[in-house]
């Protein structure tokens, strides 16, 4: 199974769910869901690759660091991402890549600005042989 994403109800913000056969795939699914809140990621070409490295005290904090590092790299580079890979994932470190292109309001049909991933409703669990990661993103 490839990484996938879904959403859950939240009063003021948006809950993002990443799902995968591995924890890395679930992290990738969460990243896809995060960027799909902002634009239709199917309309984004993955022509540029940005190196992503982050670290944290534990795996839950690392998930939030991953999402917020992606947001920061997208902002710094004026990009939007559509595809993600993770080469290394440990309890405390992550190395991967984000693929995307320069943001273009006409092409990408911007939906919602995401300010950041939060610790609200953060969870990482295994459900029926799938890894599921959840958090609320601040819009």
Automatic annotation (TrEMBL):
<dbReference type="InterPro" id="IPR023572">
    <property type="entry name" value="Archease_dom"/>
</dbReference>
<keyword id="KW-0106">Calcium</keyword>
<dbReference type="Pfam" id="PF01951">
    <property type="entry name" value="Archease"/>
</dbReference>
<feature type="domain" description="Archease">
    <location>
        <begin position="5"/>
        <end position="139"/>
    </location>
</feature>
<dbReference type="InterPro" id="IPR002804">
    <property type="entry name" value="Archease"/>
</dbReference>
<dbReference type="InterPro" id="IPR036820">
    <property type="entry name" value="Archease_dom_sf"/>
</dbReference>
<dbReference type="GO" id="GO:0046872">
    <property type="term" value="F:metal ion binding"/>
</dbReference>
<keyword id="KW-0479">Metal-binding</keyword>
<protein>
    <recommendedName>
        <fullName>Archease domain-containing protein</fullName>
    </recommendedName>
</protein>
<comment type="similarity">
    <text>Belongs to the archease family.</text>
</comment>
<keyword id="KW-0819">tRNA processing</keyword>
<dbReference type="GO" id="GO:0008033">
    <property type="term" value="P:tRNA processing"/>
</dbReference>
